[in-house]
């Protein structure tokens, strides 16, 4: 009898990990973005996009009839928060993939953990150089600034053809901002413009008097900013308050309507290159449909960070559906480890028709996207709300 009990206990113990390692239903997909801290200015937009995707994709049948369930883990704004969120999603929630984190700065710290756990990461907003290179399981659907940013400089030159003197400012404690500024500085040279001053700041700064004084002293006719939303918003505001009258080009960190309340009416006319525009619906019925659904759900138009988060969920769901089609096996019948590996491959095949147009993921994990835009901020008379108005 004793032997039977022991044998039974052994069988049960052995069965335990196997059971735990099956893919759960609804299919869990991790969303690790900043829901708190200053970085939540981007993260809230990402949550909105992801939730809308979950609702709409499940209403359309999920993965061939099996629903998905997004598992949200707040990363807050730093590396430790992202690492913690990734660990919970990987080990506790047993997600099939992680969409996140918000910042490249966080991706460099957290993505290696998912890579070691052989779990695909889909970056919805990381735009620094070197993200896919983190590892085999790391990809992104957010176009790197090397492809997007120079468009805004060209637009500035169209507005002011005699443009010459450029002041460059960037947040030196942020990996994305430090990366983006090198892209801008290279493009400035290539376009025959002159960098007259390079000023550094911190994403935590609130007083930019030193940098603005240097810009005014250098007699710049274009200012190019690489930072995050709160710092850049304050910087724009103080540039205008202290008398800077020239053009301003903002990088990806200024691509958020959540920055509008920070610089208020003084946000007007800032030029931003974008990988998504709610105005670009003519050629893309998927965007038209998405933008209308977003407007109906949130009573405002979608921001780039929302569209990209939506697209990230869509891409994961379509890649899962492809696996079922190719193997003839339901996702829920896979071992979790096998599914994660298959999903990483599936993500990198075929194309996806998203709100950003047709995109695909190269074997390296880098996104391939065709259409980019430049918009200008136009604030409403209330000085708090406004829009990115498409200029090219
Ligand atoms: N794109 C930036 C990054 O990669 C921010 C603005 C989300 O960190």
Structure overview:
This protein is α/β, with parallel strands linked by helices and 392 residues long. It has helices at residues 2-20, 40-59, 79-92, 104-116, 145-148, 150-159, 175-190, 209-217, 229-241, 260-263, 285-298, 304-327, 336-347, and strands at residues 27-33, 68-74, 98-99, 121-123, 138-140, 165-171, 194-201, 222-226, 247-250, 271-274, 352-354, 357-361, 367-369, 373-379, 386-390. The chain has a seven-stranded mixed sheet with strand order 7-6-8-9-10-14-15, sandwiched between helices. Helix 2 runs parallel beside helix 12. The longest helix is centred in the C-terminal third of the chain and has 24 residues, at 304-327. Residues 9-18 have low confidence and may be disordered. Residues 42, 102-104, 125-128, 176, 228, 252-253 line the site of valine.
Overall mean pLDDT score? Answer: 95
Largest sheet: 7 strands, mixed
From the N-terminal CA to the C-terminal CA, the straight-line distance is 80 Å
Shape: elongated
Question: Summary?
Answer:
This protein has 392 residues and is an alpha/beta fold.
What keywords describe this structure?
2 domains, elongated, single chain, alpha/beta, 392 residues, 7-stranded mixed sheet, binds valine, 13 helices, 15 strands, Rossmann fold, 5-stranded parallel sheet
